[in-house]
Amino acid sequence: MSIWEYANPVKFIRTADVLLPWVTVAAVICLVTGLVWGFFFTPEDFRQGSTVKIIYLHVPAAMMAINAWLMMLLASLIWIVRRHHVSALAARAAAPIGATMTVIGLVTGAIWGQPMWGTWWAWDPRLTVFLILFLFYLGYMALWEAIEDDDTAADLTSILCLVGSVFALLSRYAVQFWNQGLHQGSSVLRAGAVTGTDTTEKVSNVYFMPLLVSGIGFVLLFLALVLLRTQTEIRARRSRALLARERSA
Amino acid sequence: MELTASDLTVARGGVPVLDGVSFALAPGRALVLRGPNGAGKTTLLRTVAGLQPALAGEVSGAGERITYAGHADGLKSMLSVGENLHFWARVFGTEGIGTALSAFNLETLEDRLAGTLSAGQKRRLGLARLMVTGRPVWVLDEPTVSLDTASVALFAEAVRAHLGQGGSALMATHIDLGIPEADDFDVTPYRAQPRAALQDEAFL
Amino acid sequence: MIALLTRDLRLAVRAGGGFGLGLAFFLIVTVLVPFGVGPQTDLLTRIAPGILWIGALLACLLSLDRIFALDWEDGSLDLLATAPLPMEGIVSVKALAHWITTGLPLVLAAPALGVLLNLAGPGYLWLFVSLALGTPALSVIGTFGAALTVGLKRGGLLMSLLVLPLYVPTLIFGAEVARRGAEGLAVQTPLLMLAGISFGVAALLPFASAAVLRINLR
């Protein structure tokens, strides 16, 4: 029993059919719990007031924006090395989700930034990096759409994903060098935040637990959407293949 | 060294068009592919030329020994006839374009820009390019398109001269060139059974 | 390889080759900026390095789709693929030819256009150095974008979208060298980063471009 068995489209569809309801239900439970807990049952921040609560959308969305790209990178590598069609289609399926997460991250960031920094947008390194990431997603999706032959498209987008990842990383350092920025440092997973020893700058425990639940909810939501969209892509490919067979027979 | 194809399956857009093609082409011989439009002659030639991978089977004696001429001549309209030929001669590391020019009756046109040539003249220039490459195996796709009778005779003569020097030629054409060294090879019997494209097979 | 380079250069200077296109665009951008932002010299001095870099980048972008499109249309690319040249060599030579016909004129013209934007004294040297070091990277990255979209109808727009984010690091470090130079600050760090990017992409990206081109040719 090898993991590569799931690279068979039919097997994948069957497995996804079994998994999807569970993952979806779990995602909904986590999201509802995390968000309701976060929005209604946590104290307001003494400086930021209720605006701090947008963190339960902002941080998980931003994390998933990056994780989705990493997943696409992994799937692209698998396609290049082993040429499993499911892998290429999963990468294709993940791109719009990642792009949407990036937009959610940017929009919630703007809504949060307006009362905090007095501006909707600033050319802050983190914001800029997410904008660049969004452009990468757009280019990746546009390339998939532009090429008719499925295998050619998979090959080209995989290479673009690889090259793009290197440049995305490079952009991150370039942008940090270019502007030191307004955005607070990464404040979720610092040791002090979890242990509660340092309460000035980091997310304290009260906020951390609902954030964790909401984060898990986002991961599960992403998983459910990727499964669903990959299934759709496989079925679309399958119907095209069947049509082609009918025409040639 | 002969050019051989053994049990070759070639595909267009992932869909197999010819299946189990085998032939051998000895030095000094020519092979003329026959078959109706869409039979897969161009695909076979492109595969032999190494421009696209074969689905199955293998080609030997090609690679660095072949030169390919397709539907497009690969001419630069803003370069003169001589400059076009000199460029390919330098790319293939050969010297002199004189014989190629005279073989296709292009001497008087040497300084003309390729863009100002007629379709038949362009074709002749495209074929003259084969001679400057110095490669022994010519792979030609419809070489006589837009050539008049006189030019076809020039071309047949050039092919015979090439075969006489131990070269060989693999071509797809519909007309009779009158080359005694040429054998016909009908691709119709090799037409692949209708089946799904390779990349679709996993989805059926 | 040298034959390919000389052919591309010759084609570029012949009529319709697009040799002066990038340069003309660069000039237009630089001349139009003061009309857009106002004639205050101190403002122009401040934004001059950035404007000149952006102008050079856009001028470069404008001519990218010519790198492979013409050779694709007339069939030369197929013939080159069967020639005794490695594909990596072909894409590198194509990038070099693009740089000589587009990047190099921009590098040479930039100091002159700096005068129009009232660039500060020490800025001329650093603008020149940063463009000389950075524009080759723009050409190499652009060749990758052109190879990705070769043979696509309406590939130009898609190529710009693909290349745009790839250009960000080069632009940031390049413009930073020019800006710091003009303000008399230390330029060492961004200069080293810019050089690193240029040499890095010149060494590695041709492999990706060649792979992509092979896929597109089959």
Compile the SSE list and pairings.
The complex is a heterotrimer of chains A (249), B (204) and C (218).
Chain A: H1 9-40, H2 55-82, H3 85-117, H4 125-146, H5 150-178, H6 191-195, H7 205-248
Helix pairs in contact in A: 1-7, 2-3, 2-5, 2-7, 3-4, 3-5, 3-7, 4-5
Chain B: E1 3-12, E2 15-25, E3 30-34, H1 41-48, E4 56-60, E5 66-69, H2 81-91, H3 98-103, H4 119-133, E6 137-141, H5 149-164, E7 168-172, E8 182-186, H6 198-201
Parallel strand pairs in B: 3-7, 3-8, 5-6, 6-7
Antiparallel strand pairs in B: 1-2, 1-4
Helix pairs in contact in B: 2-4
Chain C: H1 2-13, H2 21-37, H3 41-62, H4 66-73, H5 76-81, H6 87-116, H7 123-148, H8 155-182, H9 188-217
Helix pairs in contact in C: 1-6, 2-3, 2-6, 3-6, 3-7, 3-8, 6-7, 6-9, 7-8, 7-9, 8-9
Helix content of chain C: over 70%
Q: Would you list the SSEs of chain C in sequence order as H and E?
A: HHHHHHHHH
List low-confidence stretches of chain C. Answer: none
Radius of gyration of chain B: 18 Å
Mean pLDDT of chain B: 86
Beta-strand portion of chain C reads under 5%
In total, how many beta strands of chain C? 0
What multimeric state do the chains show?
Answer: heterotrimer
Q: What can be said about the biggest beta sheet of chain B?
A: 5 strands, parallel
User: Biggest protein-protein interface?
Assistant: A-C, 26 and 27 residues
What portion of the residues of chain B fall into strands of 2 or more residues? 15-25%
**Number of E strands of chain B:** 8
Mean pLDDT, all residues of chain C:
89
Inertia-based shape of chain B: globular
Q: Which residues of chain B form runs of ≥5 with pLDDT under 50?
A: none
**SSE series of chain B:** EEEHEEHHHEHEEH
Q: What best-fitting shape of chain C do the alpha-carbon axes yield? A: elongated
Give the structural class of chain C.
Answer: mainly alpha
End-to-end Cα distance of chain C, whole Å, is 22 Å
Number of helices of chain B: 6
